[in-house]
Design a protein that fits this description.
The protein is of the alpha/beta class. The protein is 31% helix and 24% strand. The strands form three sheets. A six-stranded parallel beta sheet has the order 5-2-1-6-7-8, sandwiched between helices. It has a six-stranded mixed beta sheet with strand order 10-9-11-14-13-12. It has a two-stranded antiparallel sheet with strand order 3-4.
């Protein structure tokens, strides 16, 4: 089997470290693994498959000889270094939002549009975490009948804001118990014992940038340029796994049984829908694995041709690291 030289840009962050775990779990055919990060991480050693790898500086010239670079860095870093990655002959699978809406950059969820990787010109974008989880859940519905619109509310875990999110949640919880000072630095308000209906920056239409991703990225991934989505994104005091409530409006009327069967057989999904047994997707059920759990499937009571469901998935894994590595697997097929 051919082996590949793989780099991880932003290797010491939460997603970068998860990428390493998943590369090992999935036995990705690696010849060399090159870990790249900011100056403060240079020199650190991280164990991969029993061997210590020293972190090197992410800079121009650091990508020579690599076949694939997995990006887990900021938009600014991705934009700065992408030209050099492409120049070096590597394919950049980028987890930032820097290139997602570029016409010449595929935006890929392998279970849905894996074939789009063939259109790359050196860069492939990984979609937003909530978008990935939601679209994996509803793709089976789109196969039964074209989706015209979606109404979604996301309930996003604190780790979606980076490693500091869960730390701030725990610190605030401890402060509440012990009568300490509540400090809000990662989030715009206290997150402990609270929910915050604000992720991203507000646009002129009143929706945030995070909320618009569900429509704009969804159109590109599902190949539905007319798709309309109303989305509200909410930060909740959960450590890991995002949850989404979504009403899916289709061209044709579908039955619950049709949708249940389609979801049960869909790639990347697990039907988890038994109200009598109190089985439905929850963060504590879906964390630290790669399937999107789908449940609470029911006919909508407002729209004639609509199904409402609840889904949940690990946003660090399937919503970020695993999806990027699945893209890399599509590339080497």
């Amino acid at each position: 089997m051919k082996k590949y030289n793989v780099g991880i840009l932003g290797a010491t962050g939460a997603v970068g470290r998860e990428m390493m775990n998943i590369l090992e779990e999935r036995n990705f055919p690696i010849n060399e693994l090159r870990l790249l990060a900011s100056p403060r991480s240079v020199g650190k050693k991280i164990t991969f498959k029993g061997e210590e790898i020293e972190v090197k500086l992410a800079e121009v010239g650091a990508f020579e000889g690599l076949d694939i670079v997995l990006g887990a860095a900021s938009n600014a870093v991705a934009k700065e270094l992408a030209p050099d990655i492409v120049k070096a002959g590597a394919v950049f699978v980028d987890n930032s939002s820097a290139f997602r809406m570029n016409d010449d950059v595929p935006l890929v969820v392998p279970e849905i549009n894996g074939e789009d990787v063939k259109k790359n010109k050196g860069i492939i974008s990984n979609p937003n975490c909530s978008t990935i989880i939601t679209l994996v859940a509803v793709n089976a519905i789109n196969q039964l009948s074209k989706i015209k619109g979606m109404i979604a509310s996301t309930y996003q875990a604190t780790s979606g804001a980076g490693a500091g999110g869960p730390v701030e949640l725990r610190d605030q919880e401890n402060a509440l118990i012990n009568g300490g000072e509540i400090k809000s630095e990662v989030f715009v308000h206290q997150i402990a014992e609270n929910v915050i209906p604000h992720i991203g920056s507000f646009g002129e239409n009143g929706f945030t940038t995070e909320e618009m991703k569900m429509q704009n990225e969804g159109r590109k991934i599902l190949h539905l340029p007319e798709l309309k989505v109303t989305c509200t994104c909410v930060r909740v005091p959960v450590v890991r796994s995002h949850s989404i409530s979504v009403t899916v409006i289709t061209e044709d009327k579908l039955t619950v049984n049709q949708v249940r069967e389609a979801v049960a057989n869909a790639k990347g999904c697990k039907l988890y829908d038994n109200g009598d047994a109190k089985e439905y997707p929850m963060p504590i059920v879906t964390s630290d694995q790669d399937l999107v759990y789908v449940g609470r499937i029911r006919e909508d009571l407002v729209f004639d041709n609509a199904i409402t469901l609840w889904c949940c998935g690990d946003q660090v894994r399937k919503g970020a690291a695993t999806n990027a590595i699945q893209i890399a697997e599509e590339l080497i097929k």
